[in-house]
């Protein structure tokens, strides 16, 4: 190394230095997969300049109008979600359309979970996702940013 040469390193964010924001995403009339990628990006913190992969530096995400999301093609009738309790013959399947009507919050959490890390870090990120079927939500005091409300 030359004399007087200073190496610059990438700044790694520590967990106590993370500043979290609240984002509202209005899912009405948007494609399901596009909304999920936006949610996963915000939960991981990849939209921030100080993104660090091994630190939970993501923001809180509130999804409203989850039941009014659009699904392309014939996925409402053909895409299946399976559950299994561990006992023989206990596999149950539900179509995407049924799950969207009954519990859209579960559907969004399942989709977002698949796009997050498969570790304790991913579980912590998923806890910051709040999904509501209608336009009413109890987080109006925290929300500072609004995404997708056009």
Question: Which helices and strands appear, and what pairs or packs with what?
Answer:
Layout: E1 22-26, H1 32-44, E2 60-64, H2 75-78, E3 80-83, E4 92-95, H3 96-102, H4 104-115, H5 120-126, E5 129-131, E6 145-147
Parallel strand pairs: 1-2, 1-6, 2-5
Antiparallel strand pairs: 3-4
In short:
The chain has 150 residues and is an alpha/beta fold. The protein has helices at 32-44, 75-78, 96-102, 104-115, 120-126; strands at residues 22-26, 60-64, 80-83, 92-95, 129-131, 145-147.
Subunit organisation of the chains = single chain
Q: What does the radius of gyration come to?
A: 19 Å
Overall morphology? elongated
Low-pLDDT stretches: none
Pattern of helices and strands:
EHEHEEHHHEE
Task: Provide the β-strand percentage band.
Answer: 15-25%
Instruction: Identify the CATH architecture of one domain.
Output: Alpha-Beta Complex
Please report the distance between the alpha carbons of the first and last residues: 54 Å
CATH superfamily descriptor of one domain:
Ribosomal protein L13
CATH topology title of one domain: Ribosomal Protein L13p, Chain: A
Strand order in the sheet with the most strands = 5-2-1-6
Report the count of strand segments. 6
Number of helices: 5
Q: Based on helices, strands and strand pairing, what is the structural class? A: alpha/beta
Top CATH class of one domain: Alpha Beta
């Amino acid at each position: 190394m030359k004399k007087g040469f200073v190496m610059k390193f990438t700044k790694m964010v520590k967990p106590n230095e993370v500043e979290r924001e609240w984002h509202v995403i209005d899912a009405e009339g948007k494609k399901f997969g596009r909304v999920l990628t936006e949610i996963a990006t915000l939960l991981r913190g990849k939209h921030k300049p100080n993104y660090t992969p091994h630190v939970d530096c993501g923001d809180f995400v509130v999804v409203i109008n989850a039941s009014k999301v659009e699904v392309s093609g014939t996925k409402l009738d053909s895409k299946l979600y399976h559950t299994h309790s561990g006992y023989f013959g206990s596999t149950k399947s539900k179509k995407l359309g049924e799950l969207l009507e009954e519990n859209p919050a579960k559907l969004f959490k399942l989709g977002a979970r698949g796009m997050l890390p498969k570790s304790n870090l991913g579980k912590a990120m998923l806890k910051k996702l709040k999904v509501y079927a209608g336009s009413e939500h109890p987080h109006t005091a925290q929300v500072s940013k609004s995404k997708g409300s056009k």
